[in-house]
């Protein structure tokens, strides 16, 4: 009976853990029914060492580096998108605040003629330049033939320009040919005409021995 009473009086033991200052192992004290504390060795948990620890640290470093690169790339992309949006807003604001374009038609004088199609000055100049370069490329200066040469070239130029000239225009061609060995000369012309409907085309050409200046007047008549 006494033994049974003793077994019935046994209480559950309570286990407490205490941190030990020793680096090799930790001890666990156990309190039994008698009230005495008995030390008990508990294996200490140490972090992995060697290659495993190095791999773990390398993985953490690589993950942190990848996350930093991604963050920087996202910041750059956000900055570029903001700059583009700001430029678009500025361009839209300029277009909205810009003054409307007013088309001013050329004023025609009361006494001026008003042709339906005006003389094509630029096209005529290109035709004359190509014509003189073809005709005078291999020609040397000779005073005895200059008078005949100028007449023939003027007639050819008038026929060439007539193909692109609108109707009701009269053409007048003038030409001067000189030697490059002598002193230079200046060719000028002056006339009274309608500045709105009439026009003039000037073209120059030079080779090794001579120069040529051609003028074509286009006078409109009603």
Automatic annotation (TrEMBL):
Identify one Gene Ontology CC term for this UniProt entry. Answer: cytoplasm
**Swiss-Prot/TrEMBL GO biological process terms:** microtubule-based movement
Which branch of life, at top level?
Answer: Eukaryota
Instruction: Give the matching InterPro entries.
Output: Tctex-1-like (IPR005334), Tctex-1-like_sf (IPR038586)
| Polar residues biased stretches | 18-36
**GO terms for MF:** dynein intermediate chain binding
Q: Where is this region: Disordered?
A: 16-64
PANTHER family from the entry? T-COMPLEX-ASSOCIATED-TESTIS-EXPRESSED 1/ DYNEIN LIGHT CHAIN, TCTEX1 DOMAIN CONTAINING 1
Q: Which family does it belong to?
A: Belongs to the dynein light chain Tctex-type family.
UniProt name for this protein:
Uncharacterized protein
- Native species: Hymenochirus boettgeri (Congo dwarf clawed frog)
Q: What is the lineage of its organism?
A: Eukaryota, Metazoa, Chordata, Craniata, Vertebrata
């Amino acid at each position: 009976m006494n033994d049974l009473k003793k077994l019935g009086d046994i209480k559950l033991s309570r286990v407490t853990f205490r941190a030990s200052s020793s680096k090799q192992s930790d001890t666990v004290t156990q309190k039994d029914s008698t009230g005495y504390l008995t030390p008990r060795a508990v294996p200490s948990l140490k972090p992995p060492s060697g290659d495993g620890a190095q791999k773990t640290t390398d993985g953490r470093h690589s993950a942190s580096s990848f996350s930093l690169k991604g963050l920087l790339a996202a910041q750059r992309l956000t900055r570029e998108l903001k700059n583009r949006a700001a430029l678009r807003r500025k361009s839209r604001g300029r277009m909205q605040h810009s003054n409307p374009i007013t088309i001013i038609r050329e004023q025609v004088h009361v006494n001026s003629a008003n042709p339906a199609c005006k003389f094509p000055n630029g096209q005529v100049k290109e035709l004359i330049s190509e014509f003189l370069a073809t005709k005078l490329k291999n020609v040397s200066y000779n005073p005895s033939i200059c008078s005949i040469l100028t007449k023939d070239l003027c007639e050819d130029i008038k026929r060439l320009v007539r193909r692109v000239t609108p109707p009701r225009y009269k053409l007048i061609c003038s030409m001067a040919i000189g030697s490059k060995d002598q002193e230079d000369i200046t060719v000028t012309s002056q006339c009274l005409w309608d500045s709105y409907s009439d026009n003039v085309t000037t073209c120059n050409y030079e080779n090794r021995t001579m120069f040529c200046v051609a003028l074509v007047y286009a006078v409109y008549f009603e």
